[in-house]
């Protein structure tokens, strides 16, 4: 059972020394109870207290790392059920299945397409994370060839799946430096799988149809010396999986159920690109930490990555661009000057429309704490004063030969005061960014 902040406080030294980084021992205890601090931050806690508080100091969902280096994938270590409570920290890993029945040409072609699944949205690069290599041919040589070809053809993280534990062991040793996640389809292979994972210091997958089976398998892996475990819940139904994922996460977070306190993975099962995309998005929303799918079409992968990006952003901290002057196209001293806020979606929407207009322009992105135009105006973060200050601070007057500035149509009410404060002529632009191409064509 999870301990409350007061329960934890009773076992702390109560010195209020501040060496843990918190003002009081009670404040530190409250952070421990919320899984936001580690017990080792306290230099004076006794061994007896450590034994009592061990469960309180550990994260409710174990952090599992797949891969090595800067591009490794970290899963788990979440602290809340819903993102509005705080935020989700480690985005769900998204990967693609490859089987050893593919020809060498098909392997290379598929890997090339997967490597190219990189996009840019609202100033952030979004991409896929893994390739899952599954042995289905029964031919060890084919599986090992798939592993070797993948190792030389992509830097993405790996999952190795095989019912042949000898083949899996050899594949794990070949790719040990890349730290793959290993998995055996059969529950009977749990013992050998644990041995391979421990020997090579690799994370592993445990499977089960019930929480009791999953918990027992996870406990066996931990007893065998494997700390990093991923859960695979076996349920053929989409609704059943989502229900199980939710219950497992709730049990780990709310009831401190340690055997279920690990990241969850799943495979898509529905046929057809549209159905698979809908299934994949559903899993990312509720609560898969690792998703493996088959379709690698860019038109279907992008919506999934966008959904993940939206879910794993901080709801209390809007995505922002740096407040400054941006140049769109080959600007000249006669180019128009457009003002907007530094909310990423607002800025990139405006920038895209300006680029599409073929009229080079300057965009002055004002610091509005990441809010959209109307929201920032209502919160008094996008006002005549802030715009005038941005015009002076960023030095736009040094870049253009005119003193004309275009503001969004929604805040036309600011034009009079802005002219008074800045000394610039204010032109009221369209309300929506989509109206900019037509507006700019007639700009003088």
Structure report:
- The protein is an alpha/beta fold and 444 residues long.
- The protein has three domains: 5-56, 3-methyladenine DNA Glycosylase II, Chain A, domain 3, CATH 1.10.15; 64-311, Dihydropteroate synthase-like (TIM Barrel, Alpha-Beta Barrel); 325-441, Rossmann fold.
- It is 39% helix and 17% strand.
- The chain contains 16 helices and 17 strands.
- The chain has an eight-stranded parallel β-sheet.
- Helix 5 runs parallel beside helix 6 (165-174) and helix 10 runs parallel beside helix 11.
- The protein is globular, with a radius of gyration of 27 Å.
- The mean pLDDT is 92.
CATH superfamily of the largest domain: Dihydropteroate synthase-like
Biggest sheet features? 8 strands, parallel
Radius of gyration, in Å, reads: 27 Å
The average pLDDT value, as a whole number, equals 92
Short structural summary:
The protein has 444 residues and is α/β, with parallel strands linked by helices. The chain has helices at 5-9, 25-33, 47-57, 104-115, 140-153, 165-174, 190-200, 211-223, 238-254, 273-285, 298-311, 344-357, 373-378, 384-394, 415-422, 436-441, and strands spanning 64-66, 73-75, 93-99, 118-121, 124-127, 130-134, 157-161, 181-183, 204-208, 229-233, 264-267, 290-293, 325-328, 337-341, 361-366, 404-407, 425-428.
């Amino acid at each position: 059972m999870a301990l409350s902040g007061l329960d934890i406080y009773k076992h702390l030294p109560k010195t209020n020394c501040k060496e843990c980084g918190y003002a009081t021992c009670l404040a530190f205890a409250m952070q421990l109870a919320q899984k936001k601090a580690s017990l080792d931050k306290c230099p004076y806690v006794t061994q007896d207290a450590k034994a009592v508080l061990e469960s309180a100091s550990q994260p409710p969902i174990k952090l599992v790392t797949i891969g090595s280096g800067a591009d490794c994938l970290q899963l788990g270590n979440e602290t809340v059920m819903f993102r509005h409570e705080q935020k989700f920290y480690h985005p769900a890993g998204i990967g693609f299945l490859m089987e050893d029945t593919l020809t060498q040409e098909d392997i290379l072609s598929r890997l090339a397409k997967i490597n190219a699944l990189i996009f840019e949205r609202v100033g952030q690069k979004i991409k896929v994370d893994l390739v899952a290599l599954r042995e289905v041919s029964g031919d060890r040589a084919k599986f090992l060839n798939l592993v070797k070809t993948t190792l030389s053809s992509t830097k993405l993280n790996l999952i190795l799946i095989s019912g042949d534990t000898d083949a899996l062991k050899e594949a794990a040793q070949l790719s040990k430096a890349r730290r793959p996640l290993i998995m055996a389809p059969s529950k009977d292979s749990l013992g050998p799988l644990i041995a391979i994972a421990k020997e090579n210091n690799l994370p592993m997958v445990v499977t089960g149809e019930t929480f009791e089976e999953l918990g027992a398998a996870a406990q066996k892996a931990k007893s065998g010396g494997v700390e990093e475990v991923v859960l695979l819940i076996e349920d053929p139904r989409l609704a059943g999986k989502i229900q199980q994922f939710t219950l497992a996460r709730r049990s780990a977070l709310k009831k401190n159920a340690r055997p279920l306190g690990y990241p969850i993975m799943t495979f898509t099962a529905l046929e057809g690109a549209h159905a698979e995309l809908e299934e994949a998005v559903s899993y990312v929303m509720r609560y898969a930490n690792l998703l493996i799918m088959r379709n690698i079409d860019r038109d279907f992968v992008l919506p999934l990555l966008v959904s993940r990006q939206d879910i794993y952003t901080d709801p209390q901290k809007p995505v922002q661009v740096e407040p400054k002057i941006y140049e769109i196209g080959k600007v000249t001293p006669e180019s128009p000057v457009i003002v907007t806020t530094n909310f990423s979606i607002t800025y990139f929407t405006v920038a895209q429309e300006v680029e599409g207009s073929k009229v080079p322009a300057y965009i002055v992105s004002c610091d509005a704490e990441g809010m959209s135009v109307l929201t920032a105006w209502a919160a008094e973060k996008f006002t005549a004063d802030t715009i005038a200050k941005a015009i002076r601070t960023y030095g736009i007057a040094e870049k253009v030969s005119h003193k004309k500035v275009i503001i969004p149509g929604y805040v036309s009410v600011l034009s009079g005061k802005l002219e008074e404060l800045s000394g610039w002529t204010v032109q009221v632009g369209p309300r929506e960014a989509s109206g900019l191409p037509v507006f700019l064509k007639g700009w003088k």
